[in-house]
Amino acid sequence: MPSDAVLYQAAALCLTYPDDDLVARLPLLREAAPPLRAFTDHAAVTPRRELAAHYERVFDPGNRHSLYLSRWHDGGTRRRGTSLVRFQDVYRRHGLECSGEELPDFLPAVLEFTARTGDTSLLTEHRDGLERLRTRLTDYGTPYADVLDAVCATLPAAPAGTPP
Questions:
Q1: How far apart are CA 68 and CA 159, in angstroms?
Q2: What is d(CA 155, CA 158) in angstroms, rounded to the nearest whole number?
């Protein structure tokens, strides 16, 4: 069984746009993170263009499958700016900075941060959003749900009464 750090890094890669680099890494990801095999096996046999088109459909903002964790907590409100600053502050406390290519609450960035630092606080704080995303991806019927299943399985159980 891989360490959670390996799983988080592999999940981060699986949840990014499926480019040639991801496709080249699929055999390594398959071996390094067995809980992600359903996804990596699917991605390995799916033509890259089809995989990319599926990613775009699934994570299109209109489909309500946002990979931006603060959207699950704050929606599009002004509070989201405060949440984004909080993400950046947590990164900085660990000596890390966001590259600026993505917002700091982008789930693959949070997973990579968690893999590098072992600090699961951002994932734990946003567990309810992760669960809602996982449920929606499952209902949508996408293999990306398997990635969220694996990530959520590593986190403490959501408190009783937390909406799925």
A1: 22
A2: 8
